[in-house]
Amino acid sequence: MQIPLSKPDITQSEKKAVLEVLNTSHLSLGKKHIEFQDKVADFVGSKYAVAVNSGTSGLHLIIRALGIGRGDEVITAPFSFIASSNAILYEGAKPVFIDIDKNTSNIDVSKIEEKITPKTKAILAVDVFSHPADWDALGKIAKKHNLFLIEDSAEALGSEYKGKKCGSFGDAAIFAFYPNKQITTGEGGMIITNNKNIADMCKSMANQGRKVENGKWLEHIRLGYNYRLDEMSCALGIAQIARIDEILKKRSQVAKWYSEALKEIKAIELPYIDEHSKLSWFVYVVRLAENFSGEKRDMVIAKMAERGIACSNYFQPIHLQPFYKDEFGYKEGDYPVSEGISKRTLALPFFNNLTKEEVRYVAKNLKEVIHEF
Q1: Within this chain, do residues 107 and 236 fall inside the same structural domain, yes or no?
Q2: What residue range is the signal peptide (predicted)?
Q3: What is the per-residue pLDDT for 348?
Q4: What is the CATH number of the domain that holds 234?
Q5: Are the CB atoms for 343 and 320 separated by under 8 Å?
Q6: How far is CA 201 from CA 63, 175, 213, 283, in A?
Q7: Angle 351-357-363 (CA atoms, 0-180°, nearest 5)?
Q8: Residue 286 forms part of a structural domain
Q9: Which end of the chain is more exposed for a tag (fewer CB within 10 A), N or C?
Q10: Does 249 share its domain with 164?
Q11: To the nearest 10°, the Cα dihedral for 104, 162, 112, 98?
């Protein structure tokens, strides 16, 4: 049996939607991107959405729209996909790392205020593995210190914090639609905000700096980028968001199967969910016992691969990436919680149509492999 790490859920509905666009003369800047924006905004409960070609592009545009630039600092966490910090660097600002909460793997809100300086302009918090950050505490800190609050919900479409959907807590937020996400557009992302000025700035910059309304094609009023999302991708996204309830139900079921199948394996810790949160299940990541080193975890991944089961580590801390070590002088020991958890994380195969039989097969083999150690 061969089981991939992830797999998109594409039905005839998605294929038909994309083909319909291909049969028109509008492959970009047509009606589909407007419809997709509206659908996602309605789902989240926000006023505005801006479709872009990646979540990374979305973060970049938000940071630029907020006027964050050279000499400024943005507080964030090192346990994340690298884009959350790279987007800060794009505008010449500096990411200031805060270590993570040992349970949720999200930014440790109790350590934020001690790192706030006159240069601090924003907090960029990530909903890691689709588990919501502590948005109540983050909102209070941001308000107290007059900081922007940016929500990286790339992994959390459909997750909820105290009954409110992720993507709706900050001044602006992003989702990402890479093929391993809850819904996919192949490549793609979405900016979410209730602030019209932010939305209009992002729309303009994503479209080469053109006016949002009544502009000429070769008239550019500000520095912009080609961050547009094409019509085929938007059509795919519309078909996917129409199935969001079905998709989230499937992912929840797979997660329940895993938790049941793995609960007796003493050498692993199951995903933590706090009492205020509902997860949309981007991935299913367990932690190996504390006696496992990063090297042993990697051996587990290799042995699972030999059995036809794709697994992965999630994440390598950003501050220990070669570029960040070279550029900023970070070293092991700087953020011990992130580093310790990173060495023990194991992402198991996870996607909508993973079967109960396949989940049991993964669990059986994982138990056998772990017992070799």
Answers
A1: yes
A2: none
A3: 98
A4: 3.40.640.10
A5: no
A6: 11, 18, 12, 32
A7: 80
A8: yes
A9: N
A10: no
A11: 30
Over the stretch 48-103, which tens digit does the pLDDT of each residue have? 999 999 999 999 999 999 999 999 999 999 999 999 999 999 999 999 999 999 99
Q: Are 125 and 230 in a shared domain? A: yes
pLDDT digits (tens, 9 = 90+) for 45-56: 999 999 999 999
Q: Measuring CA to CA, which residue among 359, 348, 352 is closest to residue 261?
A: 359
Pull the structure tokens for residue 368: 């056998």
Range of the domain at 160: 12-241
**Confidence band of 106 (pLDDT split at 50, 70, 90):** very high
Task: Show which of 241, 258, 278 is a domain's final residue.
Answer: 241
CA distances from 68 to 64, 119, 148, 149 (A): 6, 10, 10, 12
Structural domain contains residue 2: no
Spatial distance between the Cα atoms of 114 and 193, rounded to a whole number of angstroms: 28
Which residue out of 181, 203, 250, 343 is catalytically annotated? Answer: 181
Q: Are residues 227 and 253 in the same domain?
A: no
55 CA to centre of own chain: 8
Characterize the bridge pairing of strands 172-176 and 189-193.
Answer: antiparallel
Q: What is the pLDDT of residues 158-201, one digit of tens each?
A: 999 999 999 999 999 999 999 999 999 999 999 999 999 999 99
Distance, CA of 147 to chain centre: 22
Chain-centroid distance, C-alpha 109: 19
**Integer-rounded Cα radius of gyration of the chain:** 21
Mean pLDDT of 31-53: 98
Residue 168 counted as domain residue: yes
Q: How far is residue 47's CA from residue 66's CA, in Å, rounded to a whole number?
A: 18
The reported pTM is: 0.97
Q: Are residues 177 and 38 in the same domain?
A: yes
Q: Are 259 and 153 contained in the same domain?
A: no
Q: Is 325 an active-site residue? A: no
For residues 290-326, one letter each, b for 16 or more C-beta atoms within 10 angstroms of the residue's C-beta and e for the rest, the string is eebebebbeebbebbeebebbbbbbbbbbbbbeebee
Q: Which two tokens stand for residue 84?
A: 């959350």
